[in-house]
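Course exercise 7: structure representation. Students receive a sequence record and must write out the corresponding structure in token form. The form below is the worked example handed out in class, using Putative NBD/HSP70 family sugar kinase (299 residues). Read each field label carefully; the graders check that inputs and outputs are placed in the correct fields and that the protein name is recorded exactly as given.

STUDENT ID: A-19
EXERCISE PROTEIN: Putative NBD/HSP70 family sugar kinase
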Amino acid sequence: MRLGIDIGGTKTAAVAMDANGRVTEQIRMPTGWGGEAVVDTAVRAVTELAGLTGVSAHRFDSIGIGIPGQVERTTGRVSHAVNLGVDDLDLGGRLAGRLGIGVRVENDVKAAALGAYHLLALDGSMAFLNVGTGLAAGIVFDGRLWRGARGTAGEVGHMTVDPSGIVCACGQRGCLETVASGAAIARDWPTSDPLPVRALFDAADTGDGRAIALRDRMSDGLAMAIRNLVLTVDVDRVVIGGGISAMGSRLLDEVLRALRASALDSPFIASLELGSRVQLMPLGSPAAAVGAALVGVGG
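STUDENT ANSWER:
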């Protein structure tokens, strides 16, 4: 029995998987704020799944954690997880000490990429484009994560698209994330809707010119991310996930429109058939938690 935990900024999801890769139990709970609370949340998730499965915590075959921020895979140390109030935390070591079993820790987007690949029963190569508060991708080749030399493979959100643009949270100017992400929409289209992109799309549908411009800017940015992923690593599939993917076909239609437009004047880009490579992750899929479970066994 394998256990995977996805620690998000507000919610933590956890799954138990059997030896055949089937999810047997899953739970959700609020995520605590700050390092101590994050550790306590993870321990509580393990305890609850232990109760549901009848397997004591130290007898799980593996435990994997997906978490935002920079992750040192060899030690399980997490840094710069700003949405969790974590600057530096020895998460792997702390959990191993409390649970009595080794724990593997991975960046949440990379874990989600591995989970998406598994849940969609894909083969070959795939990029998981996570469109949430930020913008990043995880890349999988033949069922294994490709992290790059220093773990930054897939960080397309921090490719500069406008050197004179606004300052990104990473310190650069004009990153792709500053125009194509949940944070970018929330900044430029203030609303009481818990999903600002929905309010933006609704306004665009009524003919609001500014809303249309912002919607098109985001769609063009996501199309650019897809092009960059295919042009750099030539993946078979690009799967769109993350909170903004809850827009479903409304989002996909706009991204496909932008991809078609980019191919009109370029036979080379047209030959890549980008539109046929793109799909949405099904809403509500526990990809990150499943990926964390797979990371726990060395994914």
